[in-house]
Amino acid sequence: MPAVDQNDIKIMPKSIVCEDSILRGDITILPGCIVHPSASIIAEAGPIVFGENCIVEEYAKIVYPLTEDQMKIKEAGVEALPPLIIGINNVFEVGCTVEASRIGDKNVFECKSYVGPEVSISNGCVIGAGVTLRCKQHLPEFTVIYGRGYLQREAIDKHVSQTLQIDFLRKVLPNYHLLRKPNYDPKKNRNVI
C-alpha cells in the first residue's frame, strides 16, 4: 500500500492525545477524545474525523485503509476520497483493530477484536473480545457479537456514557505521559471537515 504523503493532525481543545501515539495522515480529533500512548490512527485512504468523547486505548489501531476500489478511484484522477467520520462516544479497547467503512455512535470494540474494511457499524454495537469480522456486512443498531462462535444478539442495556472514565483519564494521563498540544481552534477556523 502506498505511504501517506503528509500528516495533517488537528487536535481540538479539551482532547487528550498522548505524544507516544502514532498518528499518520489527515486526522481530526474533536473535543473530549482521549488517545492513549501506543495507540495507532492511520488515515491512508482519506481523512479520519473523530466525534466527541471517543476513547482510543493502548495498542488499539484504527485504519482508514486504501482498498483496491479506492485505489482505482484515485488513479482515475479523483483528488480526495470522502472522510471516515467516526461518531461520538466510541470506545476502542486495548489491542483492537478497526478498519470499518462506517462507525456510528456509542460503539464498543473490545480487546483484540478485528473489524475489516467491508464492515459498516451503526450505533450502540458491541464487538466482543477476540471477535473477527471480515465479510461485507452492516451491523444494525444495538447489535452485540460475542464468544468463540461469534454469537449475535440485540443489546438489552443500551450503551452507558463514558463520562467518568474520560474524567479519570483526563486527570491521570497528564501525570504520566507527555501530551500533544491542541493545535486547532474551531472558533478561528470554521471548516473542520
Automatic annotation (TrEMBL):
GO terms for molecular function: dynein complex binding. One of its GO terms (cellular component) is dynactin complex. Keywords: Cytoplasm, Cytoskeleton. InterPro entries: DCTN6 (IPR027777), Trimer_LpxA-like_sf (IPR011004). Belongs to the dynactin subunits 5/6 family. Dynactin subunit 6 subfamily. Part of the dynactin complex that activates the molecular motor dynein for ultra-processive transport along microtubules. This is Dynactin subunit 6. It comes from Glossina palpalis gambiensis.
